[in-house]
Amino acid sequence: MGKVMTLAMVASLSLVTTSFAQWGDFGGGGFGGFGGDQNGGGSAEYSEKIADVNYAGDGKEYHNLDIYIPKEAKDSYPVVIHTYGSAWSMNNSKGSADINTICAGFLKAGFAVVTPNHRSASDAIYPAALHDIKAVVRFVRGNAAKYKFDTNFVAVSGFSSGGHLSSLTATTCGMKEGKSGSVTVDLEGSLGEFTSFSSCVDAACLWSPPTDIYTMNPINSFGGSGTFEGAFIGAEREGNKDKWMVASSPYYASEEDPPIIMFHGTSDQVVNIEQSQELYDSLQKHNVVSEFVKVSGGTHGGNEMYVAANLDKAVEFFNKAIDAKKASAPAVDTTPAKTDSSEAKKDTVPAADTSAVETDTTKTDTSTTYIASAKAKSLEIVVVGNKLHVEGTVAAMKYKVVSVNGTFTETGDVLGTLDLSRLPSGVYCVIVTGAHGQHGIVRFVKK
């Protein structure tokens, strides 16, 4: 998709001059460091906590997560995955992931909350931590029935370096690789047993996030040489611009990104507020639904960041994203689609074909048409072998395929690269746009 990002991740240490003894004081009253103030003057309320679930299937502590179920009993719950801040230097801080502040707000509003561990910079360099968070998203989708997750809405949230990982998760949906110059990184990974599920998310909430580590003032490593960013990337900044750029969310921004809201304090002493501004500007440039809340006098992890008004605003933003997704979801009709070439096809969207998608690559099926458009300038999409193709030549074509149950999402530039044979069984919609306003929607059933 040609998206390239520069993201210099800033360490989420409160004050570099803070005594080392405070390093582990995540639960204490006023410590606003790696994990922020975990007390926040309140406490999280939930009906059940399911602790230490391994999302990678490897038994490693850094691949454990906790699940919190809201007090109000429902058949299923929309999900927020919230990642702790640690300057990418902690691998077991899920228990101090803003439980009594950010997470408490989402739980009160009826969201199930998942707090994962992830590999630290000392365990593995970037993009390992990103692979971990994406594996968590897939785990949530793969375990929807077991934990009563409503996978029609899965969002990410995160503080500081956790916000950085969440921002990358949101802006790299459907991208297999990130490229800058001679550097290429795998953005998806293959961690866990649910690799057939989508790692895309429906919204993101970022708290004091670093976004462009290359442009940000680096945070010196605590008690040693180098920087936290350098440890995370595996190379210090000088002479390694491309390695730092592929870990940057503002430059991955595109019109396909989900809604994103950011909260950043004007007095943040660790991650300067311009980091959120840079990502916000990139999102706005691509017409992404986004909001930037500048918290007057807010510090890094300080109580002023987590006042009720801000927590309510975050919940309201997610609820609007839920409503918008419901409103835009195409209706699925299971009556057979017509395949005639009349002019009426250009003005109406036919019902979905309920036959199985052909997956025999030796056979070409050009008779089955699954697509028409409500616009006059329509694109007609046909099944050819195990791929979908647009009839005729269309410049700058983009596609997005989503499963109706929300378990799979993929985006790309060339529709023919979408291999239908690898899709899980289900009902799908494919939205295609061309360079001159053409628009097509195909709906099909994969048995």
Mean pLDDT across all residues, rounded?
A: 79
- Segments where pLDDT lies below 50 for 5+ residues? 1-38, 332-378
What is the CA-CA span between the terminal residues? 29 Å
Specify Rg, calculated over alpha carbons: 22 Å
| 3D shape | globular
> Residue share in helices?
10-25%
Kindly estimate the percentage of residues that lie in beta strands according to DSSP: 15-25%
Assembly type: single chain
Strand elements, count: 17
Structural class: alpha/beta
Strand order of the largest sheet: 1-2-4-3-5-8-9-10
Number of helices: 8
Describe the largest sheet.
8 strands, mixed
Secondary-structure element string: EEEHEHHEHEEEHHEHEHEEEEEEE
Question: What's the arrangement of secondary structure elements?
Answer:
Blueprint lengths: L47 E7 L9 E6 L7 E7 L15 H10 L3 E5 L11 H15 L1 H4 L1 E11 L1 H11 L5 E4 L2 E4 L16 E5 L20 H6 L7 H5 L14 E6 L8 H12 L4 E6 L12 H21 L42 E2 L8 E4 L2 E4 L7 E6 L5 E4 L13 E8 L5 E8 L1
Parallel strand pairs: 3-4, 3-5, 5-8, 8-9, 9-10
Antiparallel strand pairs: 1-2, 2-4, 6-7, 11-17, 12-13, 14-15, 14-16, 16-17
Which terms summarize this structure?
single chain; 447 residues; 8-stranded mixed β-sheet; 5-stranded antiparallel β-sheet; 17 strands; 19% helix
